[in-house]
Amino acid sequence: MKDTATTAADRPHSKGDRIPARRIDGDGTSNARFDFEGTYAVASIVLNGKIVGDDCANDSQWEYSLNGKDWKPAIAGGSCGEQARYVRVSGPVAALPDTDIQFIADSGFAVEPADEWTNLFHKKQSWSGSDGIYSIPVNGVEAHGTAARTTTVFVFGDTFVGNVDERTDARDPSTAMLNNTLGIMDGAEPDPEKLRFVWREGENGDPLSAIVPTTPKATSHHDTYYWLQDGASIGGHYHGFPLIIGHDPDGPEGFQFAVHGITHVTAPLTAAGPDLSRVKQTDTPLYFKSAGGHTTYFGAAIMPNTAEAGVPQPDGYVYIYGLQHNGIHQLVAARVLPEDLADIGQWTYWNGGEWTDRKEDCAPIAPEVSCELSVSRMTGGSLDGKYVVLCQLGGTTGNRLAIYSGDSPVGPFGASTPLYYCPESEEGRGIYTYNAKGHPHLSAPGELLISYNVNTTSMEANMAYGSIYRPRFVRLRQIP
């Protein structure tokens, strides 16, 4: 067995293919642990060319884990029955050479690092780290595999603008923190030469956030700013529903903020991205208490299900997803015709059985999601035609990427499928991971490019370690 899996060709593409694995620890005689460096459904274990028996024993005990902490015993034939990254064995088999131990893929999902995308945002000059990272095709076509025909706008949240020392990884003390920025990328490939970053500048050249609040609701609070949430290209205009954020000194370190409302922001789109000189902002009633008394707001994900978006069998509506906080974040949905998107009075809300004009009656369609997420119409593979919610489980600082799938934009969505464990929090220094989402137009059919955010609760750590506050990427593939 190879020490590392170095190319995509080494990875399994069909049921029955070998999963490359490397031995990462063990005493070499009675126990061993292997890492797939991705997650897979495992069909069987092969020892010396023979599949292990249904008792999975062979005088040894086999176990699987998604995160390297929580272990489950192998089942018939040595399979795991769900996504796994690690395998450990105790018993005589651990003494076999790696070449005599093989793991065979089952049909299902593969989730593997997409290092080329992670590296794209590992800049150490000027723009040097952010979260958020929604992606918007300027031409409005959201369908899989269409990014080569357009420009992509990346929407970022809090952003460091300043240099990072190549040797020490420390940020320059003069580094500025902006509350939102944009990235503009031409084509479909993660080429640093085709990616540029956008923010405004003050009279003295100091960097300023790309979009600054100007609405009456936003300016009625002291020192507010925008977290942009998701956006979409509809009718040649950027549309987004940013959160109005204010400071809350009573919050814990890293979470010292309060939400004051939702704004609708729009601007004409050009090949250079949104025309920031022509931004229009309007207060909305989209931050409210539900009939059950739960804080609810919209804009966390937008899915145009229209002919313009190029998705299969469109129903003509734009779906805007939100969150309802009931101890955990639950997903809620609204929809509107694209020409009425700016008229909130034309929106309707899913109440669990039908669409209603009473936003307070909106009902959860997925039981647990992250604060930011995506909803996408999939093409290719076993998920073809399904609507997939890609999110992160485990609360604000969760570390499990998961999907829900359903037959309509409002489901019904069954139980979540955990796909991948984000390992960065194991490094300490207050590091946490959050807000995974998919990028369908940047993904091949049958796949989904996924980003998630990495941060730390310590500003001191963020300044000392410039590599922390960057998006990471993995790729979901379907294995037939």
TrEMBL record:
InterPro entries: DUF4185
Tree of life domain: Bacteria
Stretches assigned to the DUF4185 domain: 309-433
Record protein name field: DUF4185 domain-containing protein
Listed Basic and acidic residues bias regions: 10-26
Annotated segments matching region Disordered: 1-27
